[in-house]
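Hi Q.,

Before the meeting this afternoon, I wanted you to have the zinc ion prediction in hand. No need to reply - just skim if you have a minute. The sequence and ligand are here:
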Amino acid sequence: MTVHSKKKDLIKRILVCMAIAALIILMPCAGPAYASQSSSYVVEYEEDDYILVRNEETGYEILVDDEAGLLTYDEQKQLIEVMKECTDYGFIFFVSTDEDNFPSVDDFAQDYYRSRVPDENGVMLLIDMNFRKIWIYSEGELPYVVTGSKANIIADNIYTYATDGDYYTTARIGFEQIGSVLSGRRIAQPMKYISNVCLAILLSLIINYFFARLVSQKVKPSDAQIMNSIISRFDFSDPTARHTNTTKTYSPRSSSSGSGGSSGGGGGGGGHSSGGHSF
Amino acid sequence: MIVCPSCGANLKFDPKSQKMLCDFCGSSFDPKEFDVKEDVEEQVVQEDNPETPDFDTIDVTIYTCPQCGGELMSVDENTAAAFCSFCGASTILSTRLAKGKKPEYIIPFAKTKEDCKKAYLGVVKKALFLPKEYRSDGCIDSFRGIYMPYWTYNVKQKGQTKLRGETSHRRGDYIITDIYTLAGKIDAEYDGLSFDASASFDDSMSEALAPYDIKQMVPFEASYMSGYYADLADVDADTYKYQAEKYAFNASLKRIKNETREFKKYTITTSKEAPKASKMADSAVPTSADNGHSAMFPVWFLSYRNGDRVAYAAVNGQTGKVVADLPIDVKKYLLSSGIFALVIFAILNMFLVLTPITALVMSSILTLIVFVINYFQRVDIRMTVTGEGDKGKEFLKENGKGKKKKAEKVEEAETGVFETVTTLLGLGSVAIAVLLVVFFQPVSDIPYYVMCIVEAVFFVLSFKHTLGNYNIMATRRLPQFDRKGGDDRA
Ligand SMILES: [Zn+2]
Ligand SMILES: [Zn+2]
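Predicted structure with the ligand bound:
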């Protein structure tokens, strides 16, 4: 009984320690997002569900292309205010679509982005109603900042709003977090820490087990060691080889005379990274 | 008892000087000077019956453990033994005098008890999860010098070898294979292939403790045993004969293949699988072993009892090689795993973000790994319990000497109901996880995380068994010997 409860005590203590450690690491994650006010912006083009705004200072543009009609005009205007912060770093697109002639969300995103500003720095948040996916796509230098896993985290943080049909909140929080990532602030990623904690615990338990097995292995001596420990002599003489018989097996040479298939192609195009979440 | 010629005290063999030392007056003597008087009657019997191996007898004291029935012998008379090396019990062993068969050869102790302790501590240092009692002075002080009985074989190979070799080349759509008989004269000898002759000394232990350098083996003198104990041989000489032949067969086959220039161009197809015992003498490499010679090899032996389990540690008394059962202290294990987990966590955070799907895939894989580990542990435990693979134990079983209580054995090998249920439910949860990832693919993250948690619970529940099984594997059940008396086998 006492041994058992002691064990439980210890496990509890370890868990508490880990929880505290996780909290300490999580703490600095939450921080307010603030938009840069200094730059001046010019509306370059505006029609139904399509607004293009330019940051005069950096030359980067904000594009809202709500083809699927998810946002009201007011919401589009408010969203542009949120998106402004990001124009310090690159082009910033909000796109919604219900087009169904692309094999994947990522194909659509790449095609859309590259047909407008190829190879330029930029981030695009795409709500694809056809695949029902939120997709965050980055190009130029930005894939190093808005990495695939960051894109996944952001999409993960906002997908529930999209599930509920609140696309404005989806986009707003999405761009806030993209802004945070671009300006080097940390975004809340609780699931990252929780799942990493669990993974770390399970991994350490298993790795330690293999370590214990390795150390406690009872190693048998090799044949060479045994040979060294005994007294042996070996003499082999008069080697002769006498032919006894011949066998013939049918084994046709492989007929495929190598069509020399040219592999490759593909490649090319700048790198991008993307990630997303269904909703 | 070996008596000091100068003062009459008990002389003991000293591994360091390889001399007989007198603790009392400090004199030292050559161990070979002390001849044990020979039994005339026995020699007469031998002449009538030339097939009986050449055994003399020596006077010994047999120590019997009242708890497990384990027996040790000694040539010293007056020493009281206060603990049992087989079951670890602290109890006065009962003694009786007997005549023991005199072994033919002995490898005297070369490592002192201090050497042995040092070597042991060096090994257990690496076992991070070992309960600290195993390192305590009280524990390692009970290392006891025991001569273990071995059978050592001389294997000769003389005559014509008949290997099968072939060369092949392609002609059109055909592969032409020419088959040859590769003959030659072999004259080889492997002397000193040794196997432990005590069923109480586990094969897994004695095999790992090997090799002993046979060149240090000398004709047996009782004086080498002074100050030490010896285990009793209870396995017949021919038990390991075939194994010795197999070793020689493979060793020579390999050398013929590798060292004969004339055979280089042939692919030798003679099976590496050694022929059956009855065919050995007439095989591709004619091989035959003698009937084995009895020998005593030195082992520093330690047993540590913990409840109804016992752990052994053995140090080769000639080479200092250490073989030890290393159970784990669950507390220590969890503590160091916790610390290690923090390190892994820090590393993971640098580059890993799990999406719910990958998190679930990973937890499924890890959970499955635990189930697989548990499965193989069960297989291992069952093999140990049934004594499979241990030639000495198999011998005893065949001869009806090793009958142990069946009920107890089964209990250890059986998977508990709780463990079975945990495993089945756990496998079920993994199956659900697979369905979730492959078929349902729900939009919400919640089902993935819920399944992660469910799997983690089963992981923890099953891992409890993993640790428990590990300790079953790292320790032994208390031995029960039903030796009737020393004289017939000693
Ligand atoms: Zn003396
Ligand atoms: Zn005992």
